[in-house]
Amino acid sequence: MNKTLAAIAIALTLSNINSANATPPFEAWRLGFLAPNYMEVWIETADVVDIQGQVYRRAMSGNAAIQRPPNNSGNPKGWPESPGWGKGKYVTRADLPKKIYVRWQSLVEPQTYQMAIDIPESTREIMRKGEKTFCAADGKWITGYREALVVGLAPGGIAKVWVLGPCLSPIEVTRVKAEVDPRGPYEGQSGGKYDSLSDVSKAYVEKKGVPYGSW
């Protein structure tokens, strides 16, 4: 290899290292969860591992964001073209995410699932990258960042992940098929008993069923 090619190779290597170790342009990033209409979810735990190897237990737990339109008028098939931020929290004092572990109950089945979502470097690059965008909320042009990861959870153990930010459109980054947790709800500590399904969701499922295969 001649000196010019060697210099280029070294420069590219250093650039990649610096990019991978770059400080996030925001103080905290947000982890949110949503579910299709009526397809209620209870998140037992969502644990985060950041790129420094630090573990953040129960970064999120509880209900995922969901809509339950009356009179069975909602449509749970597929995912929204522009998903919202979901229900969640900011993961404070963490570097950008490397892996997210989730264990949740799909209440309409009912079934308990668990999975590990690997967050690729390409997603972290999206989160680091600022974009000029017009924010209608305050009528200003800003440099925005996609500082939120949103995970959609659906029956059958299907999960889809988007990255998005204030005034910036969501970008789909991965889809994961979870495995059934054979221990059942609460790691087997509830005697197989699941949390209750709401009357609205129960009525929908009894009449129209669960649209497996649409997610």
From TrEMBL:
Residues 1-22 form the signal peptide. The keyword Signal applies. The keyword Signal applies. InterPro entries: DUF2931. It comes from the Bacteria. Keywords: Signal. Residues 62-84 are annotated as: Disordered. Pfam families: DUF2931. This is DUF2931 family protein. It comes from Pseudomonas ekonensis.
